[in-house]
Amino acid sequence: MLELTRVTAGYDPRDPVVREASLSIAPGESVGLLGPSGCGKSTLARVAALLHRPYAGAVVLDGEPVRGWRHAAPRERRTAVGVVFQQPRLAADPRLTLRELIAQPLRATGRRAEVPDRVAALAPAVGLTAELLGRRPHEVSDGQLQRACLARALVLRPRWLICDEMTAMLDASTTAALVEVVESYRRDSGAGLLAVGHDRVLLERWCDRTVGWRTVCGAGGTAQESMSPTP
Amino acid sequence: MAEADLGPARRTTRRVRVIASAGIVGAVLLAVLLVPPLVQLDQQAVDLAAKLRPPSWEHPFGTDDVGRDLLLRCVYGLRVSLLVGIVAGLTATVIGTAVGALAAAFGGWTDRVVMRLVDTLSSVPHLLLGIFIVAMFRPGVGPVIVSVALTHWLSTARIVRAEVLSLRSRPFIDAAVSGGASRGRVVVRHLLPAVLPQAGLAAVLMVPHAMWHESALSFLGLGLPTHQASLGNLVQTARGSLLAGDWWPTLFPGLFLIVPTLALAGLAGAWRERINPRRRSELML
Questions:
Q1: What are the sequence ranges of the domains in chain B?
Q2: Which residue has the higher pLDDT, B239 or B278?
Q3: Which pLDDT score, from 0 to 100, does residue B86 have?
Q4: Interchain contact A156–B (C-beta under 8 A)
Q5: Which residues in A lie closer than 8 A to residue B276 (C-beta atoms)?
Q6: Which 129-148 residues of chain A touch chain B by CB within 8 A?
Q7: Is the predicted pLDDT of residue B49 greater than 90, yes or no?
Q8: Strands A81-84, A30-34: parallel, antiparallel or unpaired by DSSP?
Q9: Residue B182 and residue A105: Cβ atoms within 8 Å?
Q10: What does the pLDDT look like over A27-86, one tens digit per residue?
Q11: Quick one: pLDDT at residue A169?
Q12: Which 3 state secondary structure label does DSSP give A204?
């Protein structure tokens, strides 16, 4: 289980972005989190990915409560959750070629020997040719770069996958291709998925269940939500 | 990329500038490295019978007020000035990068204290601070290098700190953390390489600046001892003869200072336009 209970998080303790949000995902389940832009769903996704320490609340990952975030979290815990970010341009180190980008988590965890095999297996799966793998981020399109970022998130075979507006910057055919890659990975590995987005049609077709931001935050909600209409 | 959206005329002038700068820097390096060991001439050889001769075939740059060959003196002077410039520029950059990166990486009180210290030091004119430092030592190359290095790391520290701070919160650092990268790996593999072009550029731009500082200190009589040729010393000793109408002892050392420093700055500018992939990818968007 990946469980978030009454999580309050943000960037200013006096004015948190997320207040008392609760969400749980069972292994193998796919959950869509739907909310307007700016409501705090990306912040909640960062908390779930162990990248952002919340001010209050509990996160339980695979039955064990999470005590540290970012570097304070043990490496196995951090790498148990794969993350795909909204903007591939910002999520990719501009100095690395796509091949190095995909191999980066393997190198960081001391599994250099697996690099050729894993890259050779993942690149065709996400639709990247050998020629594209040699290019740097500024030489490929957003869609091609997001394919590489998805491969990077899958390269360590995470038990949980968090896609934070993964397809917001992409066209319909790339969106369909990337969703298919995620789904085929989940069929093989049984990984749980949290897909964050504001596209109700996409999330309802993609996920087992879709929850609205209002439901996640209980009755309280956030200040931002009460000001902007739900799509 | 960056080349594509410039007009052909601008591209050509830029290429000419780069080639000219590289040519000058290359020629200067060759002269400075090869002339002293190859030409067995004594730059300090005094010939009072041939003092203050205008440029001729025998002495292309003329001679100074005690008959020393100015071309040889200029090459030796440039050698000393370049040595001071490169060593001081590199030292200042290393200090600045370390201080800036540490301040940004630790954050909180460390950052505040370190950056206020930087502000305080910046509020003192750095030539004055440099004079204060050289005045504590016996004249020589070492004190000049220390003085220039210790007064010039401040801007690099600011640049590096700002760069690391803005990079630290980027999603690609999040992605590295999520992919299992350790703290050290994030700094060494992702933060420092991203800062390196800026720091390297600061180092190269610092070299001409440090050369000018060395010349200024020597000109004021606080830098190198007068018998040791440096561009500042040459201009300083030539001042007297300029009033008597002898132009060559000031002109040639002056050109030796201006032309190589401009060429170095030109190369650094071209490097800045080429090496920054972030700017290139931004131009693509």
A1: 8-284
A2: B239
A3: 92
A4: yes
A5: none
A6: 136-138
A7: no
A8: unpaired
A9: no
A10: 889 999 998 888 888 899 999 999 988 998 889 998 888 888 888 888 888 999 999 998
A11: 81
A12: helix
Distance CA B106, CA B53 (A): 62
Q: Which CATH entry fits the domain spanning B8-284: 3.40.50.620, 1.10.3720.10, 1.10.10.10, 3.40.50.300?
A: 1.10.3720.10
Averaging pLDDT over each range in A174-178, B49-53, B222-226, B266-270, which range is the top one?
A174-178
Q: Closest partner residue to B176 among A89, A104, A156, by Cβ?
A: A104
Indicate whether B51 pLDDT > 80.
no
ipTM score for this prediction: 0.86
Model confidence over A172-226: pLDDT tens digits?
888 999 999 999 999 898 899 999 988 888 888 899 889 988 888 874 444 444 4
From the list A81, A93, A136, the residue facing B178 with the nearest CB is A81
**CA-based nearest residue in chain A for residue B278:** A94
Which residue of A91, A104, A136 is in closest CB contact with B277?
A136
Q: Do A51 and B178 touch (CB under 8 A)?
A: yes
Helices (H), chain B: 8-38, 70-106, 108-123, 126-135, 141-151, 154-168, 171-178, 183-185, 192-219, 231-243, 248-275, 277-284
For residue A133, the surrounding DSSP H or E stretch is: helix A130-133
Give the pair of three-digit tokens for residue B42: 């004594």
In this prediction, residue B7 carries a pLDDT of 66
Interatomic CA distance for residues A47 and A4, integer angstroms: 9
User: Angle at CA A61, nearest 5°, toward A57 and A62?
Assistant: 145
Contacts with A108 from chain B: Cβ below 8 Å: 176, 179-182, 185
A-B contacts at Cβ under 8 angstroms? 76
* CA-closest candidate to residue B253, choices B239, B265, B264, B263: B239
User: What's the gap in Å between the CA of A220 and the closest CA on chain B?
Assistant: 29
Residue by residue, DSSP assigns B49-86 as GGTTPPS-SSSTT-B-TT--BHHHHHHHHHHHHHHHHH
B92 near A CB under 8 A: no
Alpha carbon distance, N-terminus to C-terminus of chain A: 29
User: Minimal CA–CA distance to A164: which of A58, A68, A49?
Assistant: A49
The mean pLDDT of A11-31, rounded to a whole number, is: 89
